[in-house]
Design brief:
The protein is an alpha/beta fold. It is about 30% helix and about 25% strand. It contains five helices and twelve strands. The protein has helices at about 1-15, 20-35, 40, 60-65, 140-145; strands at about 45, 70-75, 85-90, 95, 100-105, 110, 115-120, 125, 130, 150-155, 175, 185. The strands form three sheets. An eight-stranded mixed sheet has the order 6-3-2-1-7-10-11-12. The protein has a two-stranded antiparallel sheet with strand order 4-5. A two-stranded antiparallel sheet has the order 8-9. A hairpin with a 5-residue loop joins strand 4 and strand 5 (about 100-105).
């Protein structure tokens, strides 16, 4: 069931990625609303991912964070579905993993407690903050004892009416959605 949901949404996201102007405008709208949140304003260390082409372009978010003097950390996966976050800036080398994801090489490890805001990726989301990722469980494991804020930036193509989740699945605190300019908070 989850695999079919993933495949359907990923196909829609890949189609959206071919509409560069539309995708860019939606991203700009969501980013402007993200920058207005207290979570963004108060964050010193922000966790995000280095984007794949069909995903939200987090490079813009990273550049804004650098302009504001914030620290960006991105994940590096380990065995058994675990990951850690490492500092990212222009001088950090990246390597492409077999999953098609860029990860940092030779960068400073950041403790989970020092991350103020995590921009949580995913494939599909409900308005209640339920999410379906790529299937590895990396974020669910990491978020188990994460104390910072979590926000996801969500295209209309990623919104689901309903999603059955399991006990280990972690919800995000807030969604910033492109489709109606809405912010679902306090989830």
């Amino acid at each position: 069931m989850k695999q079919a949901i993933r495949q359907g949404i990923l196909a829609k996201l890949k189609h959206l990625a071919t509409q560069e102007d539309k995708k860019h405008a939606l991203e700009e709208d969501m980013l402007s609303r993200l920058y207005e949140t207290d979570q963004w304003r108060q964050a010193n260390v922000i966790a995000t991912t280095y984007p794949m082409t069909h995903e939200f372009n987090t490079i813009k978010l990273m550049n804004q964070a650098f302009l504001e003097g914030k620290t960006i950390v991105i994940p590096k996966t380990k065995k058994r579905g675990e990951m850690d976050f490492y500092a990212y800036h222009d001088d950090v080398a990246l390597e492409l993993t077999p999953f098609g994801v860029y990860e940092p090489v030779g960068s400073q490890l950041y403790d989970k407690k020092s991350i103020d805001l995590m921009i949580v990726p995913g494939v599909g989301f409900t308005q209640e903050g339920k999410r379906i990722g790529y299937g590895g469980g990396f974020y669910d494991r990491y978020l188990t004892d994460f104390k910072g804020h979590t926000i996801s930036l969500v295209f209309d193509e990623q919104l689901l009416e309903e999603l059955e989740i399991e006990e280990h699945d972690k919800l995000v605190d807030a969604l910033i959605c492109a489709h109606k300019g809405e912010l679902y908070e306090g989830i």
